[in-house]
Write a structure and sequence with these properties.
288 residues; alpha/beta; D-Maltodextrin-Binding Protein, domain 2; 5-stranded mixed sheet; 10 helices
Length: 288
């Protein structure tokens, strides 16, 4: 794998999104200053929004390690988990549902998680249009619904649990269901009346509300879930311990750097912290 260092000198940065297939394992890549590092992003938002959200942060990390970083964004969470399993990336930003799956099947290592609004937790929001006449989840029977990804916690497991509590399966409860593979896409589709309702990640919803308030003009939240552990940053299980420690220290100290602080402020993140795997137990309960 491309070696990480605690280098703090800024270098010419190269941050790109690569939508092609992975180009081999990086865990055993030659360690030099030009060997790139690959990071995977489980796309909780559309490709353009993902790039806008992560670009400056990845750019900052690239400067700290003194290497170009290539973003490998995949459409599904399972594809990202497969890259982690194969050691094709050095670290990855994934959702909590994908983490539970990757931890159980591939033994990934938990690196850090962001603190947002003084919390390391988030919720699922069930949303619909303001004029829909829908005020409770059970009122959605017979309506169309947008899921995000088959192993998404907020975008699939949580709403499926609500459906089953009412004694139905998704195809019995909704008139039509789709997978959007992006919480922001689900939000836009509901806002425009293309789909009747959706279950979305609270942090993505809040980010959209803050940055693009017009995109939620026609939306209301009819249900909020219990608290779930914050989507983490993880590494492959076979990542070298030194590289793991170096990368962890970079994340933990971003908020102490003046440039890093500006980047985190733009993202609405206070800092990155170490978290215990137990904060994802509520997600495990849903999966069961």
């Amino acid at each position: 794998m491309a070696g990480l260092s605690s280098c703090t000198n800024f270098v010419k940065k190269q941050v790109e999104i690569d939508f092609s297939d992975s180009t081999g394992r990086v865990l055993n890549a030659k360690s030099d200053s030009v060997t790139p590092i690959y990071v995977a992003i489980a796309s909780m938002t559309s490709p353009r929004e993902t790039f806008n959200y992560y670009h400056d942060l990845i750019d900052f990390i690239s400067a700290k390690v003194g290497r170009p970083i290539y973003i490998k964004e995949k459409k599904t969470y399972e594809e990202v988990n497969e890259m982690l399993a194969e050691g094709e990336v050095s670290f990855a930003f994934i959702c909590s549902g994908a983490y539970i799956d990757a931890k159980a099947n591939h033994g990934v290592k938990l690196l850090v998680a962001p603190v947002i609004n003084h919390q390391t937790y988030y919720q699922a929001y069930i949303i619909t249009q303001k004029n829909s006449g829908v005020n409770r989840f059970k009122d959605l029977k017979g309506h169309s619904f947008a899921f995000t990804d088959p192993i998404s916690n907020t975008g699939f497991m949580y709403p499926e649990k609500q459906i089953r509590k009412l004694g139905y399966k998704p195809n019995q409860f909704f008139s039509k269901t789709i997978f959007t593979y992006g919480h922001d896409i689900s939000i836009q589709m509901v806002n425009k009346g293309i789909i009747d309702a959706a279950s979305v990640h609270s942090l993505i919803y809040q980010y959209i509300a803050r940055k693009y308030p017009e995109r939620i003009d026609n939306i209301k939240i009819i249900k909020k879930s219990e608290l779930f552990g914050m989507p983490p940053v993880v590494t492959p299980s076979k990542l070298n311990n030194k590289y793991y420690a170096d990368l962890r220290n970079i994340f933990l100290n971003i908020n102490q750097d003046s440039t890093g602080r500006v980047i985190l402020d733009k993202l609405g993140i206070e800092k990155f912290v170490l978290v215990n795997d137990s904060i994802y137990n509520n997600v495990r309960k849903l999966k069961k």
